[in-house]
């Protein structure tokens, strides 16, 4: 995959931005009490989440952020954030819809990030890294802006893992000669399936402390007991 042979379609990039904007606004709208946000705050979180992944992708690739090269990005993400605010009460009763939107958005940002990295000539592993950063970048900036613990750093439902696996699948498919579009679709599907299954069945990586306790228990069991 080379840059002249592959160009991220504008509609695909705008779709990912729009999904991120809706998801960010829905997330911010659900807070109450001390973290309750006004309409501007919710809109800002929607914009940050919609544009964050693409901005991080382009900064890692040392290219001018595409979101600043066209009016369409800011218009799309702002409109999406407004839709998320207006329909927050409806969507919050449809948890499955929110999970699905989140999963698809992660997959799209990961696919776009990985394909752009590959098009610019990056090796396989760095391309996967760029794609995974693009996938989780919006959520990371959202948590920073809201003063929350960064979600992907804590025990959760395979947020970053789903993105990394999907991006790795895309990179391997590209390596064996699969065309960019079907490879990207596969990446989105794999990421979304892992994310949805992780949420549905509460699957997560083991907690570090649990691993430490297990290691101590194993080591302790090998200590001989000397009886008087």
TrEMBL record:
<keyword id="KW-1133">Transmembrane helix</keyword>
<feature type="transmembrane region" description="Helical">
    <location>
        <begin position="72"/>
        <end position="91"/>
    </location>
</feature>
<comment type="similarity">
    <text>Belongs to the UPF0126 family.</text>
</comment>
<keyword id="KW-0812">Transmembrane</keyword>
<dbReference type="InterPro" id="IPR005115">
    <property type="entry name" value="Gly_transporter"/>
</dbReference>
<feature type="domain" description="Glycine transporter">
    <location>
        <begin position="100"/>
        <end position="173"/>
    </location>
</feature>
<protein>
    <submittedName>
        <fullName>TRIC cation channel family protein</fullName>
    </submittedName>
</protein>
<feature type="transmembrane region" description="Helical">
    <location>
        <begin position="6"/>
        <end position="27"/>
    </location>
</feature>
<keyword id="KW-1003">Cell membrane</keyword>
<feature type="transmembrane region" description="Helical">
    <location>
        <begin position="96"/>
        <end position="114"/>
    </location>
</feature>
<feature type="transmembrane region" description="Helical">
    <location>
        <begin position="39"/>
        <end position="60"/>
    </location>
</feature>
<dbReference type="Pfam" id="PF03458">
    <property type="entry name" value="Gly_transporter"/>
</dbReference>
<feature type="transmembrane region" description="Helical">
    <location>
        <begin position="120"/>
        <end position="141"/>
    </location>
</feature>
<feature type="domain" description="Glycine transporter">
    <location>
        <begin position="10"/>
        <end position="88"/>
    </location>
</feature>
<keyword id="KW-0472">Membrane</keyword>
<feature type="transmembrane region" description="Helical">
    <location>
        <begin position="179"/>
        <end position="205"/>
    </location>
</feature>
<feature type="transmembrane region" description="Helical">
    <location>
        <begin position="153"/>
        <end position="173"/>
    </location>
</feature>
